[in-house]
Amino acid sequence: MQAPLTPKLCGDSTYLVAGGLGGIGRSVMKYLAQLGAKHIATLSRSGADTSDNKDIVNEMLEIGVNLTIHQGSVAETEDILKVQKAAGKRLIRGIVQGAMVLQVSSHHGVCDSYLILNRTQVGVT
Q1: Does a structural domain hold residue 125?
Q2: CATH code (residue 84)
Q3: CB 56 within 8 A of CB 33
Q4: How many domains does the chain have?
Q5: Quick one: which of 104, 92, 101, 105 has its CA closest to 122?
Q6: Cβ(64)–Cβ(33) under 8 Å?
Q7: Is residue 112 part of a domain?
Q8: What share of the chain is helix, strand, coil (3-state, %, to 5)?
Q9: Which range marks the domain in which residue 89 is found?
Q10: What gap in Å lies between CA 113 and CA 125, rounded to an integer?
C-alpha cells in the first residue's frame, strides 16, 4: 500500500487564514508554508501592531513566506474585499476558518471555558 501523496500548494497564489494569529492559526500557516504556500494573508481584529504579530511576520519571511496581516473580520465582506485587493493578481486559492472568541465564565465558583463561534463568521466562510 502506497502512502498518500502530500498535497502541494501554489506558490503564486494567496491563502487566507482567518484567525491566523492565535496558536493554532500560526501552526496552520507554518503547515501551509511546508506545503508550498509563499503568500499568506490573515485577518485579525487587532491587526499587525503588536510585537508578537511582527515576530510571526519575520518568522514567516525567514522561511520564504510573505505574510500580510489585515485588520478586520471574516464576517465583513468589506474586509474580505480588502484582502482580495491586496493580493493583486494572485488568486486566493484557499481559506482556513480559525476565527473564534474564547469566553471564560464562572458558574457557582467553577470556571468553565466556552468556545463561541460567531454564526456570521461560519456562514461567510
Answers
A1: no
A2: 3.40.50.720
A3: no
A4: 1
A5: 101
A6: yes
A7: no
A8: 35, 30, 40
A9: 14-99
A10: 24
**SS3 at position 74:** coil
DSSP 29: H
- Does residue 42 fall inside a structural domain? yes
| One-character DSSP codes across 44-67 | ESSTT-SHHHHHHHHHHHHTT-EE
Return all residues near 75 (Cβ < 8 A) that are at least 6 apart: 99, 118, 120, 121, 124
Q: Decide: 70 and 79 in contact? Cβ < 8 Å.
A: yes
Q: 59 and 27 in contact (C-beta within 8 Å)?
A: no
Could you give the residue ranges of the DSSP H alpha helices within the chain?
A: 23-34, 51-62, 77-87, 119-124
Do the Cβ atoms of 19 and 43 come closer than 8 Å?
yes
Q: What is the pLDDT of residues 1-49, one digit of tens each?
A: 888 888 899 999 999 999 888 888 899 999 999 999 999 999 887 776 7
When pLDDT is cut at 50, 70 and 90, the band that residue 103 belongs to is: low
Residue type at position 53: N
pTM: 0.78
The answer to whether position 124 is within a domain reads no
